[in-house]
Amino acid sequence: MKLFVNLKPAAVLLLAGIVIISAAGCGSDSKAPSTVDSDAPKTAVDPAKNSGAPQPGQTDPSAKVGSSTPSTPPTSGTVDPAKPSTPPSTTTQKPADSGSKGQAKAIEVVANPTDKAVLVNKAYKLPEGYVPQDLVDPNVPFIFKEKSEKRKLRKEAAAALEKLFKAASDDKLPLSGVSAYRSHETQKTIYANYVKKDGEEAANKYSAKPGQSEHETGLAIDVSGTTGKCAASDCFAATKEAKWLDEHAAEYGFIIRYPKGKESITGYQYEPWHLRYVGTEISKDIAKRGVTLEEYLGQATPVNK
């Protein structure tokens, strides 16, 4: 009996020790939620870890930053996907400069001056000493009586001009030639006289430098009414003849070479009297599209300088 009594306090102490150890273990488990809270931002942005439903009596750790609110700003230290950490470069790649500013582009020599679609302007010139080999006198009236190189055109262009003049005459609007072919030397003299009269800047708006004139190709002609009134003058634009040419020239292979509103492309002022032969296929296409020869050939670089 005494032995049992003596052992009873020991059993009590043993039992108390077990209780203390058990309490310590429970305290360790109580720290687990704080660890989850510290990782909450990571858990919240991982939809795979938020798919499970919370246990009864437990708070859903994703309730504050749930996946249903993607517009919620990220916590500090997290990169905002809408704002790249490295801003994109604002430098725009510029096209290669074709030449120094203020430096005139070199004038190119045309490769095939006999082509009826040859482009001759302030950027493209005829070869030195070029003279068309098939020049003829078209059977049409001119405003002057004497024989002159100004009557001549290349053979194909001359035949087309005769048809055009006949059609205009049939429509009661007879035409006359003013100036067709010009040699290099003639154009040189004409240009020099205009420069002397009006200055180079003004002359460049209506007269071509030698080698850069369409008249030297034998494919161009200035025309007017039979009286010669308004010949190669601005007032020609208001005449019935000018209107007829604008509407019908393309039917015979000619274009109004320097149309209104295209001065920055052709390099010259509006000249409703200046016809250029290119053949009916090209002339009709140009008229239909309302473009210049430069634009048609893909050479629409401003040359009004």
TrEMBL record:
<feature type="compositionally biased region" description="Low complexity">
    <location>
        <begin position="66"/>
        <end position="96"/>
    </location>
</feature>
<dbReference type="GO" id="GO:0004180">
    <property type="term" value="F:carboxypeptidase activity"/>
</dbReference>
<dbReference type="GO" id="GO:0006508">
    <property type="term" value="P:proteolysis"/>
</dbReference>
<keyword id="KW-0732">Signal</keyword>
<dbReference type="Pfam" id="PF02557">
    <property type="entry name" value="VanY"/>
</dbReference>
<protein>
    <submittedName>
        <fullName>D-alanyl-D-alanine carboxypeptidase family protein</fullName>
    </submittedName>
</protein>
<dbReference type="InterPro" id="IPR003709">
    <property type="entry name" value="VanY-like_core_dom"/>
</dbReference>
<feature type="region of interest" description="Disordered">
    <location>
        <begin position="29"/>
        <end position="104"/>
    </location>
</feature>
<keyword id="KW-0645">Protease</keyword>
<feature type="compositionally biased region" description="Polar residues">
    <location>
        <begin position="52"/>
        <end position="61"/>
    </location>
</feature>
<feature type="signal peptide">
    <location>
        <begin position="1"/>
        <end position="24"/>
    </location>
</feature>
<feature type="domain" description="D-alanyl-D-alanine carboxypeptidase-like core">
    <location>
        <begin position="151"/>
        <end position="279"/>
    </location>
</feature>
<dbReference type="InterPro" id="IPR009045">
    <property type="entry name" value="Zn_M74/Hedgehog-like"/>
</dbReference>
<keyword id="KW-0378">Hydrolase</keyword>
<dbReference type="InterPro" id="IPR058193">
    <property type="entry name" value="VanY/YodJ_core_dom"/>
</dbReference>
<keyword id="KW-0121">Carboxypeptidase</keyword>
<dbReference type="InterPro" id="IPR052179">
    <property type="entry name" value="DD-CPase-like"/>
</dbReference>
